[in-house]
Amino acid sequence: MESSFIAWLRTQIPPHPQLRLGPGDDAAILHLTERADCVVTVDLLTDGVDFDLTAVSPRRVGHKALAVSLSDLAAMAAKPVGAVVAVALPRHGGGKLAVELLEGLLPLAERYGVAIAGGDTNSWDGPLVISVTAIGETTAAGPLLRSGARPGDRVLVTGSFGGSILGKHLDFEPRIRESLLLAERYELHAGIDVSDGLSLDLSRIAAESGCGAVLDAARVPVSEAAIELAAQRADDLTPLEHALADGEDFELILAVPPPAAALLLAEQPLGGVRLSEIGYFVSEQGLWQIGADGQRQPCQPRGYEHVFD
Question: Residue 59's Cα: distance from chain center in Å?
């Protein structure tokens, strides 16, 4: 399992004077200059796992490849600076594919001032693999970590959840502008982007912060796509269950102290992106859900976990 491997990895990597934050968060932090720390993240996407080139255009894949790494920077409230891109291309048709990937990636890079600084290419007899390493810098507000949630903090989220497989997982906009604005103007304690599932990623903030979280399911913003997907599939999953577990929503989960949370909910400063309160953090470790009877009951985090031996 990915989570157990990361836990083991954290015990093996020796300390380094310039490594401020290593594996376990959305990105690593390196101290390079006195002006700002360097925030680095990498994501690897594979045809047949993260997208299906028989069904989607390479331009959409190029967009997603950069967007997932920028979403990690958004989770850290870091300002994007640059990126490098590595691809393993199929031997046949790889040249045309590489051009179209870049055509999908560049408009997003331009919107957020990201310099595509280089990368590497290779070819093989397997499917397309693309890896983007994004580089950002901390701001005056400092990095937003997974480990800062405190009992009593409110759980706030951007946007809505579920059904991303119907298109959002390819076409989403990383919450860079939203994250930087919120970190600059309001007190935030912790953050994460929802890549693997709302309930699973919420449990990760709680675990890293040494506390627990209570999820008010009735207040989770369920997307129209989740409703559509539940109607399409004969798997007996409700729209809410899709919202809690589908993943690849790439929205933000934030731990916010109560006064700041009340202000955020009243002001709704993100324009067309709505902020919703869906729960709170508690001192007892674990994840709970408020049931229909109003009582708190244990909740099993669900979502996508990379599994390997």
Answer: 21
pLDDT tens, residue by residue, 64-112: 999 999 999 999 999 999 998 999 999 999 999 999 999 999 999 999 9
Q: Which residues pair with 23 in a beta bridge?
A: 25
| Entry pTM | 0.91
Euclidean distance between CA atoms 88 and 99, whole angstroms? 13
Name the residue among 213, 214, 41, 35 with its Cα closest to residue 138.
35
What CA–CA distance (Å, rounded) separates 7 from 9?
5
Q: Order across the sheet with 252-256: list the strands.
A: 190-193, 252-256, 154-158, 275-282, 212-215, 286-290, 296-298
For residue 97, give both structure tokens: 């594919």
Q: Which tokens in the block code for residue 176? A: 């860079």
* Region of 152 on the Ramachandran plot (φ > 0 left; ψ -120 to 50 alpha; else beta): left
Tracing tokens 């255009």 back to the chain, one arrives at 57
Tokens of 285: 């470790």
Q: Residue 124: which region, alpha, beta or left (left: phi > 0; alpha: psi -120 to 50)? A: beta
